[in-house]
Amino acid sequence: MNILDKITLDKRNEVALRKQLIPTSQLEQSVLFERQTVSLAKNLRNSKSGIIAEHKRRSPSKSVINNTLNVQDVAKGYENAGVCGMSVLTDGKYFGGSLDDLLTARASCSLPLLRKEFIIDEYQLLEAKAYGADVILLIAAILTRDEIKQFSEFAKSLHLDVLLEVHNEEELHKSIMPSLDMLGVNNRNLKTFDVSLETSKTLSTLIPNDFVKVSESGISNIEAIKELQPYGYQGFLIGENFMKTDNPGASATEFINKLEE
Ligand SMILES: O=P(O)(O)OC[C@@H](O)[C@@H](O)c1c[nH]c2ccccc12
């Protein structure tokens, strides 16, 4: 079993438990359910730099990235840096995140927030909304075309943006549909952890222009972005490069200033 299969299996058990503890009617009563969401896709279309900055404490590929920071400081720092949106890992077991992290980020900034999660059930979309997300991630590698359709349409009905993540041509072909806003190419293979920017370059021509193109993972310098922009990418998801420093907000500020020079 590869790591992605393991994560997905654990996630199914976790979601089944959560469903028993917190009924959907309770999620729907969250004050955040009434909140007007902010569109990340729109922000990216209007931005020069297109940075989506991530809060990530650890990952299966890197173990600990940063265990000392607090989400509030990171969210405020990213907002001050002028990023287009913030991604918050909410998986606990493999990434050290939580829905509480999402809630804290929501209370700390007004950036569009992406719930970075392994979504396998509509219930998680209600959670995303109830804890203040604006955007959800759907990972093509763990979903069927029917699930992608069902989850993305449900997300749209909740006024959430949808970022669909692919890693190869096959995943891309099965996923193209009008209920998606952004197509993300993950430069990291979630099954082997190999990282290559070539993945973004190769898949770029196959992505229809109606979607905002996002390149994800393994971006550690300005040169990578300059290299990817000619391929039509308007969004760049960066985690470790900022999170490994003592002050992710300051790192993002420096990065964006250089990029917009
Ligand atoms: O830390 P990096 O290499 O900058 O990567 C960020 C982000 O792309 C990565 O965390 C990610 C992309 N897709 C995911 C799916 C699940 C968990 C994590 C991810």
Keywords:
42% helix, aromatic amino acid biosynthesis, 261 residues, indole-3-glycerol-phosphate synthase activity, binds indole-3-glycerol phosphate, alpha/beta, 8-stranded parallel β-barrel, two-stranded antiparallel ribbon, TIM Barrel, Indole-3-glycerol_P_synth, 10 strands
Can you offer a commentary on this structure?
The protein has helices at 3-21, 24-28, 40-45, 71-81, 99-108, 123-130, 145-157, 169-175, 198-204, 222-228, 240-243, 248-260, and strands spanning 51-55, 58-59, 63-64, 85-89, 113-116, 135-139, 161-166, 182-186, 212-216, 233-238. It has 261 residues and is α/β, with parallel strands linked by helices. The chain has a single domain (3-260), classed as Aldolase class I (TIM Barrel, Alpha-Beta Barrel). An 8-stranded parallel β-barrel has the order 1-4-5-6-7-8-9-10, surrounded by 5 helices. It binds indole-3-glycerol phosphate. Indole-3-glycerol phosphate (IGP) is lined by residues 54, 56, 116, 139, 165, 186, 216-219, 237-241.
